Amino acid sequence: MRTTPKTLPSHARRAVLAVAALGGLAAASSAAPTEPDSGLRSRLYVGLAVAALDFDDAYKGLKLADSSAGIGVYGGLRLRDRLSLELSYDAFDAIDLHDVAGSGIVRLDIETERRTTALSVLREISFKELFDWRRDWRVYGTVGVYDSELRRTITMLGSNARTSADDGDTGLLLGAGVLYGVGRVELRGYVLRGGDAREAGAAVQFKF
Predict the structure, then answer these.
(1) Nearest to 119, CA basis, from 91, 167, 168, 84
(2) pLDDT tens-digit series, residues 23-73
(3) Residue from 185, 188, 190, 186 nearest 200 by CA
(4) Which of 15, 83, 125, 132 holds its CA 20 to 30 A away from the CA of 58?
(5) Which residue from 112, 151, 120, 150 is spatially nearest to 47, judged by alpha carbons?
(6) pLDDT less than 70: residues of the chain
(7) Phi-psi region of 93 (alpha: psi -120 to 50; beta: other; left: phi over 0)
């Protein structure tokens, strides 16, 4: 597992990411022409996602891989037409393996919880505008940074001895997806890749 050493505590790293998001939103808002509050609100959106995650992990030389389902929330600001800044958070029980062969005759249960915050820029292409379609179909690409907190719990079968350890992973996030809009509601399907995680999901988002 490619893990970036933590130079800051987890809460500090998340605070830095949140400040960066707020700074980006503030800069975008100040750069935009002055408009009524209702105009600013119309550029905001929030969403709820359900996703499947494939995750690779490692523990004392053991290579681990598992799939899981989880949920996420996100919010964004449309900086300009078809360009958005988005902050998201999701949670997965990324690894949940039982009776894994350890060293010698040792058998293990291994669980890894993964909690991720990400800041991304999304760029959309509208088929409605390009091809004069009646329905609002769009595709998009996204690039950003993610910060994951990993909590690994190891249980030795037989003795039931349990150990826990916290870890972290920060890196580049890439993704793509499709959007379909109906009024203030938009449906999203997407794929994401960051570090040792691959995610595919669906979401519903609401424009203010």
Answers:
(1) 84
(2) 554 454 444 444 445 578 889 999 999 999 999 998 888 899 999 999 999
(3) 190
(4) 15
(5) 120
(6) 1-38
(7) beta
Chain position carrying tokens 């920060």: 170
Dist. CA 16–CA 24, nearest whole Å: 12
Write down the domain spans for the chain.
10-207
At the top level of CATH, the class of 10-207 is mainly beta
Task: Tell if the pTM clears 0.85, that is, is over it.
Answer: no
Q: Which two tokens stand for residue 199?
A: 């995610």
SS (H, E, C) the chain: CCCCCCCCCHHHHHHHHHHHHHHHHHHHHHHCCCCCHHHHHCCEEEEEEEEEEEEEEEECCEEEEEEEEEEEEEEEEEEECCEEEEEEEEEEEEEEEEEEECCCCCEEEEEEEEEEEEEEEEEEEEHHHHHCCCCEEEEEEEEEEEEEEEEEEEEECCCCEEEEEEEEEEEEEEEEEEEEEECCEEEEEEEEEECCEEEEEEEEEEEC
User: How many other CB atoms are there within 10 angstroms of residue 85's CB atom?
Assistant: 19
Instruction: Give the torsion through C-alpha atoms of 40, 134, 179, 43, to 10 deg.
Output: 0
**Cα separation values, 7 from 10, 14, 152, 195, Å:** 9, 12, 20, 18
Residue with tokens 């800044």: 85
